[in-house]
Write a structure and sequence with these properties.
CATH superfamily of the largest domain: P-loop containing nucleotide triphosphate hydrolases
Shape: globular
CATH architecture of the largest domain: 3-Layer(aba) Sandwich
Radius of gyration: 22 Å
Strand content: 25-35%
Number of helices: 10
Strand order of the largest sheet: 2-3-1-4-5-11-6
Number of domains: 2
């Protein structure tokens, strides 16, 4: 769902429908309710493996029939000539997938420091962050600083150690580096199982089962861990269980565990998911995009542990004149309130914007009010305008799929035509926190294009009606 472009131009629908790898269009269908949405941003140093991890997840869920290649310029995320030439992401890209009825919007961000603005846009559009760390190159200072920013706003996070298929990959050393950089709450949930020098499976520390990926399929063969594997993982399992129990709301669990009682695995998994959603515990997963290692476990974590928009806080709201109003709710039936995250120019569609919707449902032919206040220090003059949206699209990389609506929590693109005059409310510019997009609950990422200010990044987009925008 991204508009990938280094020159400010977006791909048009006419040019984005010829992808022969496209296998399943269901991921582009709009979600019916916020609880069926997960908005996850992938962050990390350039070369950590974010784009190829997105490819592996899309292929595993049938969104594409086979993985693309960065070298060949055939990935879903990186489609612009500048990205193909440089072989790295340049702008924000969004790729949706479906897992057990849950729509996961993956926001792939550039890792190079020159494109920090695209990274910030991705963080504003997400409810959780997936930190991708290379098992070869480790962590850079910028990634450590970004973790601290996410910690300040309480954004749920997990760590994925990637590129485990590489001969120089060192999972244990990378985990130790993550704990030094991110803190002791970063704990592995799986350990690699090696056959010779290759990682061919994952040992689940809670379930004590092994997912065998040696056949090369993203769907592993699952077996019980052997005696030697259980013995070797006892210390790591104890550390994980103690970390989960320390975050549990059941204060008796620690005494029972220290007293030798075997804690029910389902209870531990439930507490783990709750702690991750609250942003107080950070599991470490192991993956290889090339071999498919860990893809199934990562998909399970994205849908079960990461929060829906309903579980995230909404921003403070005011009326157009700054007067206090009732707070927004994550309700598709409520007033539409959102923020333009990103704007590009398409030669056929006009201005195309990525919008975060906090509440309500964005529909075709909607009348909206666009208001920008309090950004003079960034070079954006205050403005208010009424506009009518025409076509809505659900993007997957550079591809556009028409959709009739987008509920709170979803992602789409739309363009505008004409103007209308109606009752107006605005989303206040206050309340933003470093590194995040305030008001994740009920948020939707939408794209809009048409008439309006081309510099509308970070500006509110509202719909006439009761209530207000951020």
């Amino acid at each position: 769902m991204s508009v990938k472009s280094s020159n400010g131009r977006a791909k048009s629908p006419a040019r984005s429908t010829s992808d022969s790898r496209r296998a399943d269009a269901s991921a582009g269908a709009p979600a019916d309710s916020p609880e069926k949405v997960r908005n996850v941003v992938l962050v990390g140093h350039s070369g950590a493996g974010k784009t190829m991890l997105v490819e592996a997840l899309l292929a595993a869920t049938g969104v594409i029939s086979r993985m693309g290649s960065i070298e060949d310029g055939t990935t879903v995320s990186d489609t612009e000539p500048s990205e193909v030439h440089q072989q790295r992401s340049v702008v924000l890209s969004v790729a949706p997938l479906m897992v057990d009825g849950i729509k996961v919007n993956l926001l792939d961000t550039p890792g190079y420091g020159d494109f920090t603005g695209e990274l910030r846009a991705g963080l504003r559009g997400a409810d959780a962050a997936l930190f991708v760390v290379s098992a070869i190159e480790g962590i850079d200072a910028a990634t450590t600083a970004l973790w601290a920013e996410c910690d300040q706003v309480g954004m749920p996070r997990a760590v994925v150690i990637s590129r485990l298929d590489h001969p120089r990959a060192n999972f244990e050393a990378t985990v130790a580096e993550c704990q030094r950089s991110f803190g002791d709450s970063v704990v592995p949930a799986y350990l690699p199982v090696r056959t010779g020098d290759a990682s061919t499976g994952l040992l689940g520390l809670l379930s004590q089962t092994v997912s065998d990926y040696s056949a090369g399929s993203p769907v592993p063969q699952v077996r019980q861990a052997g005696t030697e594997e259980v013995t070797a993982s006892e210390s790591a399992r104890g550390t994980l269980i103690e970390g989960i129990i320390s975050e549990s709301e059941d204060e008796t669990l620690m005494d029972r565990y220290l007293g030798g009682e075997e804690i029910d695995v389902d209870a531990l998994v439930s507490d783990l998911e709750t702690a991750v959603a609250r942003g107080t515990f950070f599991p470490v997963l192991a993956t290889s995009a090339e071999t498919g290692l860990g893809v199934a476990e990562l998909l399970e974590m994205l849908t079960r542990a990461f929060p829906s928009p309903l579980e995230r806080s909404l921003p403070q709201v005011t009326g157009l004149a700054g007067e206090p109003v009732p707070p927004l709710a994550c309700d598709p039936a409520g007033p539409l309130a959102g923020e333009v995250v990103r704007t590009t120019i398409d030669p056929f569609l006009g201005r195309v914007c990525l919008v975060r919707v906090f509440s309500g449902t964005l529909r075709e032919d909607s009348a909206v009010h666009v208001s920008g206040r309090g950004l003079a220090e960034r070079g954006h003059e205050d403005h208010d305008s009424d506009e009518r949206l025409t076509h809505l699209y659900s993007p997957a990389g550079s591809s556009l799929r028409p959709v009739p609506y987008c509920v709170a929590g979803g992602h789409l693109r739309h363009r505008q035509a004409g103007q209308c005059r109606n009752r107006r409310h605005r989303v206040s510019q206050g309340g933003a926190a470093a590194g995040g997009f305030v008001g994740h609950a009920g948020a939707a990422d939408a794209r809009c294009g048409g008439s309006g200010n081309p510099q509308r990044r970070g500006r509110p987009c509202e719909v006439p009606g009761e209530g207000c925008s951020r």
